[in-house]
Amino acid sequence: WDETHFGKMGSWYINRTFFFDVHPPLGKMLIGLSGYLTGYDGTFPFEKPGDKYENAKYEGMRIFCTFLGATIVPLAYLIVWDLTKSTRASLLSAIFILCDVGLLTLNRYILLDPILLCFMMCATWGMARVGALRDEAFSRSWWGWLIFTGFFLACTMSVKFVGLFVVLLVGFFTVYELWRELGDLSKPVINVGKHLLARAICLIVLPIVLYMIFFYIHLSVLNKSGGGDGFFSSEFQSLLQGNSLHNATMPRQLAYGATITLKNHRTGGGYLHSHWHLYPEGVGARQQQITTYSHKDDNNLWLVKKYDTDEIPDKPELVKHGDLVRFEHMITQRNLHSHKEIAPISKKHYQVTGYGENGVGDANDVWKVLIENGKDGDIVETVTSKLKLVHYLHHCVLTCSGKTLPKWGFSQQEVSCNPNMRDKNAFWNIEDNRYAKLPNVSFQVYAPGFLARFFEAHAVMLQGNSDLKIKEGEVTSRPWQWPINYRGQYFSGNDQRIYLLGNPIIWWGNLVFLFLYICIHVYTSVKEQRGSEEDPKFIEETEKLKNAGCWLFIGWLLHYLPFWAMGRVLYYHHYFPALLYNSMLTAITLDFIIDSLYFVLPRRIADTLYHFILGTVISLTVY
Fold first, then answer.
1. How far apart are CA 382 and CA 61, in angstroms?
2. How far apart are CA 231 and CA 145, in angstroms?
3. Every domain of the chain and the residues it spans
4. Locate the MIR domain: which residues (predicted)?
5. Are 72 and 30 in contact (CB under 8 A)?
6. Rounded CA gap, 408 and 472, in Å?
7. How far is Cα of residue 246 from the mean position of the Cα atoms in its chain?
8. Strand partners, 255
9. From 1.20.1540.10, 3.30.360.10, 3.30.870.10, 2.80.10.50, which CATH number describes the 234-453 domain?
10. What is the pTM (predicted TM-score) of this model?
11. What tens digit of pLDDT does each residue of 89-129 get?
């Protein structure tokens, strides 16, 4: 399963081969580094789950992920200790996390999740330590923990974008701490300004700088052309060794008779593509499919011809803004064509097909070339010209909707003709331009700098995340299923199956204690508001539960509720960050309930119930 995915990416880092992934790079870089340092040479293909590793030294990558996953247990203990100063609550939280078989399974393999969970827990621990040291503000220890928190915020965000949720948690905690400082009349107001500046430097500036450094390393290491090139702009690709655009020389201008590739200008846009396969029955005219495809191959090549003749001029004639042209697919010799049939997915668009034989078609093959902000006489240029291709008869514009075609379209993206001429996805640029009769020029001058590549990489990742769809036969899940442990997730489909499933006692117990925490919080808050008299020690325990539990409850909410609004495909393992906060909340709620026995029952009975409850919970959890 995902081990083949991220193990392969570790290999690509070792080989310095560029690839595309929807996650930030730090976790994959660390996997590659751990493999490199332990003797793995990056040659194992990681093709499918269950492949035998033979002599590949993969163990170092697994041990690295497992080690980081193992740190979650002591980190849970330390977080709860700093929030409550209760040894019992701290031990319970560590036991709940240690005994969850889902976490044990997740932490055994080459995955991003153990890395993410470790860094997330480190950031949370740093937050708790800063809170515990509020009376020692600006001491060396306080500064150290503030920097520690900022460092691991950057690390968490650099593994997966869901790291943003722990950033929000620390942000809310910081606002709370600053509000407390503002209300402390024993300190001057200027003190709040000092705190604000310190936290801005350590929790905003430092994480941003580190995050950008990680991306700089990522882009510097992956400098060789690979399978992910096509997701990025032509300018971006020009910096990748082995890419057709790297140190490329080709004609600057487009002439009739040139063989070209057309790349859609939307973020993550693919190449205009065709192949011998036809649209199926019931999907418009049964003619040749036209799609966009994110990988480079010869099916992306098109011949540029005049609209009224198949003759290629002996002398170069340049294509200009407003010219009428035809595009002939080089492999199949069918023309780019549109007609008033409904597009496969975008029902308000017209279908685009490959039509004709040996380059001979009909009037529906004619397209008008328009340069963005161009005027009559402007010449179409390679890479730099943003083009619209307008159908001459139907006055629609060639576009890529970004929608993925079904299995019959090989999961490539739909190309259609949109009557809305303002379609923002209707821009194209020429990437390859092969024409021997014009002088070649170098395109190195168009290579982007780091910041341009940094922002483009993020745009492509976010686009890729939103485009993640369910694959045929794939088992996915919805957020309502996760807390109740409704269904797990297969990590392997071989005879010896690996099934990711949480400990039901822990998961269902977490739900019960989540509900109990809310009830206790509301009940004690109402009593406090009405001025009811209580034992001072009980009030102290109640405040400890409410203050510590509040942040763990918010952590659970932040790592769970956003998934309800996500349109992308979701999996069972997405719940594990929220599970950690819920397990720690369960521990401190159970600790409070045990302590409360001594306020309402005789000591002897309370002692008996204490040992019975604790023994039962631990026995059920461990068993």
1. 43
2. 40
3. 234-453, 468-623
4. 251-307, 316-372, 377-433
5. no
6. 12
7. 28
8. 318
9. 2.80.10.50
10. 0.86
11. 999 999 999 999 999 999 999 999 999 999 999 999 999 99
